């Protein structure tokens, strides 16, 4: 038997790493489906600007009725999540998804979480609440004088060119 070469070792390592990545991706995709099928209540929250919004899906095995969603905040990286005193009530019926919104403009925290009773929602980092990369639009008070100046300049350039041609 011949000893494995470097190319064979690389090929084997590549196959193992691909199989491992495929298994991890499959497990990650299967976890939410498994949670939804077992009747668990699920919360998904995201942030844009000063608003945390998302949806809560009530599991089929849970009793229907009013469901309180509490907003929790983590004030520093080492702190635990604490109640902010803000909550919303959702009329929940089995297997359906319901939207929610929280205004966090007056709060200061490094992360937020929306929790129904007995369930932890996903963690929303405060850094994700910043507005996206937007190119600011030039104000009309700047554009109008510049456009007038450009039109007048083109008129003078045209007059000057026609004067030099004659």
Describe the structure.
It is a single chain. This protein has two helices and seven strands, in the order αβββββββα. By secondary structure, it is α+β, with helices and mostly antiparallel strands. The chain folds into two domains: 31 residues; 89 residues, Sandwich (Immunoglobulin-like). A hairpin with a 7-residue loop joins strand 6 and strand 7. The radius of gyration is 29 Å and the shape is elongated. The N and C termini lie far apart (95 Å).
In this structure, how is the largest beta sheet organized? 4 strands, antiparallel
> What is the C-alpha radius of gyration, as a whole number of Å?
29 Å
The domain tally reads 2
The residue-averaged pLDDT reads 77
The stretches of 5 or more residues where confidence is low (pLDDT under 50) are: 33-37
> What is the ordering of alpha helices and beta strands?
HEEEEEEEH
Count of helical segments? Answer: 2
């Amino acid at each position: 038997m011949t000893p494995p070469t470097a190319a064979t070792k690389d090929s084997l390592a590549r196959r193992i790493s691909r199989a491992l990545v495929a298994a991890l991706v499959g497990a990650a995709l299967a976890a939410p489906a498994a949670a939804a099928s077992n009747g668990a209540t699920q919360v998904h929250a995201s942030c844009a600007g000063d608003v945390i919004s998302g949806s809560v899906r009530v599991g089929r095995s849970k009793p229907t009725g009013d469901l309180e969603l509490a907003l929790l905040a983590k004030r520093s990286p080492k702190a635990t999540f604490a109640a902010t005193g803000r909550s919303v009530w959702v009329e929940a019926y089995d297997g359906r998804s319901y939207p929610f919104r929280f205004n966090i403009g007056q709060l200061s925290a490094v992360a937020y979480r929306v929790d129904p009773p007995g369930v932890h929602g996903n963690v929303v980092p405060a850094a994700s609440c910043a507005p996206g990369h937007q190119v600011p639009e030039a104000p009309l008070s700047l554009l109008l004088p510049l456009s007038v100046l450009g039109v007048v300049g083109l008129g003078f350039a045209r007059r000057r060119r026609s004067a030099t041609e004659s």
